[in-house]
Design a protein that fits this description.
The chain is of the alpha+beta class. It folds into two domains: 92 residues, no CATH class; 139 residues, 3-Layer(aba) Sandwich (Glutaredoxin). The chain is 38% helix and 22% strand. The protein is built from eight helices and eleven strands. The chain has a five-stranded mixed sheet, sandwiched between helices. Strands 1-2-3-4 form a four-stranded antiparallel sheet. The two termini are 35 Å apart.
Length: 237
């Protein structure tokens, strides 16, 4: 980490000293000329002179003004503010407005009055999702939208279809994730909702489960403790 940051700072100072200047458009053009297969969604100046962030396929990449170097899987840290700039930017860039989620494709559950909202994408065989469900069980006054997102293999797809085709989808989901009882319904009903969910997830670069979306659009990849879920629900409200 320190080596990557030191390299970024060194290059930034070098480019700044050389008097180089570029716009986001010219950086994007230079990048696409050298790496035409990179799907560039946006290019934005960072607080570090001469360094630009590139948002591509749900991933943050850093490059210089001539796109000579690429920094992949690196975090840009503001040492004065003690802030992870990369995480802040990714939170904004990957957010999805809640009303833009295909909620009709999800399994809906209302707990209490259901005034708060949380949507999440989960695989029926995901171990982290099982732990996540245990934490969710302790949370009240929330409307949950569970998107069946079978990305861990054929067995996950079969179980997701069986859950979707069950007479009581919530019970079938709880049995699989909480009680360890596999669904038994034949997955022969119309399961196009699962295909559409997978397509949506691919479009939005949802690569792991669980992935949560709160009412304010904020995306949270990975399971988080119940107290953090409560904090984010309150903040989103």
């Amino acid at each position: 980490m320190h080596k990557v940051i030191s390299t970024i700072v060194f290059l930034a100072l070098t480019f700044a000293a050389a008097g180089a200047s570029a716009s986001e458009a010219t950086v994007k053009a230079a990048l696409l000329k050298k790496y035409p297969d990179i799907p560039v969604e946006s290019v934005t100046k960072t607080p570090v002179p001469g360094i630009y962030e590139v948002f591509s396929n749900g991933q943050m990449i850093y490059t210089d003004e001539q796109a000579t170097y690429l920094f992949v899987n690196a975090n840009l840290i503001d040492t004065e503010k003690k802030v992870n700039v990369t995480e802040e930017r990714m939170s904004k860039l990957t957010a999805v407005k809640f009303d833009q989620l295909p909620l009709n494709l999800a399994v809906k559950r209302v707990k209490g009055k259901g005034t708060r909202k949380l949507a999440y994408f989960a695989d029926p065989n995901c171990g982290y999702c099982k732990k996540f469900e245990q934490d969710l069980a302790k949370i009240s006054d929330v409307t949950l939208y569970v998107f069946l997102y079978p990305v861990l293999g054929p067995d996950s797809i079969d179980k997701a279809k069986s859950i979707w085709c069950s007479r009581d989808r919530i019970k079938a989901w709880d049995d699989q994730l909480v009680n360890g009882v596999a669904p038994t319904a034949a997955g022969t009903c119309d399961t196009s909702a699962i295909d559409k969910t997978l397509a949506f997830g691919k479009q939005k670069s949802i690569t792991g489960t669980p992935t949560m979306f709160f009412a304010d659009g904020q995306r949270v990849p990975g399971a988080i403790p119940g107290e953090l879920i409560e904090q984010r629900l309150a903040a989103a409200k």
